[in-house]
Amino acid sequence: MRTLKAAVAAIALTLAIFGAANAATDDVKARYMKAIPTAAKPCLACHGAKISPEVAAKLDDIYPEDKARGYGAGDIRGAFTIRQPM
Ligand code: HEC
To answer: Domains of the chain: which residue ranges?
Structure first.
């Protein structure tokens, strides 16, 4: 699992670098991307596989549509991206 996570992180970084280069030549924009990893704390308290009953009950109450659970530490959830015209 560690190896898979490292591979995903490497691919995300490669895509970020490619995206930056692509944006610089095509759109004349600088583009910055940063992966959003799931940290053991605090993220897994709400997004992990084992959520405390109190937190689970509150999440069910406030966010009944929430499906963002069952993740592990280091899982990539997406990326922040910023584009800056040059
Ligand atoms: C207190 C509980 C809580 C904590 C702690 C928390 N989240 Fe969330 N997060 C939620 C809830 C609830 C939603 C869904 C919100 C909605 O449906 O509008 C959500 C949504 C998200 C989403 C968008 C939905 C998706 O699955 O793509 C991402 C990404 C996310 N959280 C990442 C993180 C990351 C990374 C951390 C840690 C830095 C974190 N969250 C910490 C409760 C939490």
So the answer is: 2-85
Among 58, 77, 81, residue to substitute to test ligand 1 (most atoms within 8 Å of Cβ):
77
Q: Please tell me the distance from the alpha carbon of residue 83 to that of residue 31, in angstroms, as a whole number.
A: 4
Q: What is the pLDDT of residues 13-69, one digit of tens each?
A: 666 655 655 555 566 689 899 999 999 999 999 999 999 999 999 999 999 999 999
How far apart CA 68 and CA 85 sit, in angstroms, is 33
- Collect all residues with Cβ–Cβ distance below 8 Å to 16 and sequence separation of at least 6: 32, 33, 34, 35, 79
